[in-house]
Amino acid sequence: MQPRGSPYGALGPGYRMREATIRTLIKHVYAHLPFRRPVLEVLRRTVRLPRNLTGHLHFRGPFTVEIDEFHRFRLQHWGYMLENDLFWNGFGNGYEGTSLQIWRRLAPHAHVILDVGANTGIYALAARCLNPTATVVALEPVERVFRRLQRNVELNGGNVTVEKLAASDITGEAPIYDFSSDHELTASLHPSMSEGCGGVVEYAVATKRLDDVLSGAGLGSVDLVKIDVELSEPQVLLGMGAFLSNCKPTLLIEILNERVAREVSDITRDLGYNIFQIVEQLGLVRTGYIRATGFKERNYLLAQDGIVELANIRDFVVQ
Fold first, then answer.
1. Per-residue pLDDT tens over the stretch 142-153
2. Side-chain half-sphere CA neighbours of 156 within 13 A
């Protein structure tokens, strides 16, 4: 009989070990299943599986992301969460779902679009698919992630300009703080990202002001910018220089802490933006200020009156 108060409860350590062994065996068998991708393609089109199951059903290889019945793009599945979420839940129905749906409304009305902190390029590829005549530029400084971004752009005909650099307020070089694992979600120029974290590595990357990026590409304006750079958003805005005040581009921007919220507010305060907090899987909340809140509310939309009307953004407003 299991002793009272055992940390293993009534089941005992033997059961726990067998359970862990079975899980490991299942993962091993699944990883070596032949024809995994075509089987999962059939499943996702015919059966509605629970998310706690589909999170474990991943593969490696290209698949199609359907934005709507007229627009789709190809994406390489690297075995990570972002691609897996898009594969099973579809565009705008899972991770950053509301942000992606708003991006879908905005992209057709922009001539020059920047994806800053592009990761593997989901926003850039969607923009290019929705607006084939637009100039789309994607910036990603992390080498291993940049290679995946390049692969995705190649899968879609190569019509996105990609640059391996970090947007900042200085053109030159700066240390970036990254994780030694192969994961691709978090790397930052801001040193606080490394505080209290194990496995962080520091190395130098090229940095460039966005006004230098735009001028160097012969672009005289910018209309739509997504900024997700893990605490360096204020520096990206400062690096836009006169493009920010003259063009007043629509901004989809991540706010992770109160310092970023305060600095972004100071930079954009007098530019006439409507401010909306994006609550994922719910909609937009109109607000008069920017602040850091929960994980599902970390993205903000800053847009001028004209684009709010043109892109029917009010359809998403919940309060």
1. 999 999 999 999
2. 29
